[in-house]
Amino acid sequence: MKIATYNVNGVNGRLPVLLRWLEESGPDIVCLQELKAPQEKFPEKAIRDLGYEAIWHGQKSWNGVAILSRVGEIHETRRGLPGDPDDLHSRYIEAAVAGVLIGGLYLPNGNPKPGSKFDYKLRWFDRLIDHAAELLGSGLPVMLAGDFNVMPTDLDVYKPERWLDDALFAPEARAAYARLLGQGWTDALRTLHPGEKIYTFWDYFRNAYARNAGLRIDHLLLSPVLADRLVAAEVDRDVRGWEKTSDHAPVWVELADKPQRRRRPAAASEVGASL
Predict the structure, then answer these.
(1) Of the listed 147, 156, 218, 228, which one is catalytic?
(2) With b meaning 16 or more CB within 10 Å and e meaning fewer, what string describes 102-123?
(3) Domains in the chain and their CATH numbers?
(4) What is the Cα Rg of the chain in Å?
(5) 106, 177, 199, 209: which is the annotated catalytic residue?
(6) pTM above 0.70, yes or no
(7) pLDDT digits (tens, 9 = 90+) for 214-264
(8) 7 known ligand binder
(9) Which residues are listed for Mg(2+) binding in this entry (predicted)?
């Protein structure tokens, strides 16, 4: 089973790119972020025409998350991250699909730092960590997938010295990510590419994509049950080079039907080694 995450940066404006990628890559389940569309403007018909069911949590102009499936019904279990009833941002959606419980998320950017946006980012991260602990404690096959807006280590950012004052590379954000992994989650992409400079985002400015001046901020985290089934994890980097594309590229994992040789998850101490 192939499960992907993709920050589309505007689902309607970049719909041709999304549909082309879905048709060419054929993921079974997809988490989307930054829909930037209200609930009634989600392009459900176009996506259904490709054979995908969909649920989505829209918001006008900003945020927005969705889960797509071509391998069975999507049973929504949660819309919105628990812990703050006053937080109305469309940043989290959760569903059971084909025997996997998937939390699709779009973690706050947090810039400028310091300030209220950075404080919100850290509070949101704390809420995610609390909810993730409950999901992990269930013993179910669970995946957290999306745009985490954090580069966990120096290896995950081009020229890290230039990002020291950015909320995506702040010690507090990286420490929060390390705490999350420390619960027992496996960072799929880094586990299978332990020493590789592999990115998921390239800015539109300064010819970043052509120079491979990127960031790794889109992550797929697997519970132990799913980590035992992990056989591949890659970035569809070429999609970032398409015309009128998102500044992110899709990231995906392939899971076997049965457990494979157990892989050791990246330890929280390793993720936090460069903090």
Answers:
(1) 147
(2) bbbbbbbbbeebeeeebebbbe
(3) 2-271 (3.60.10.10)
(4) 17
(5) 106
(6) yes
(7) 999 999 999 999 999 999 999 999 999 999 999 999 999 999 999 986 445
(8) yes
(9) 7, 34, 147, 149, 247-248
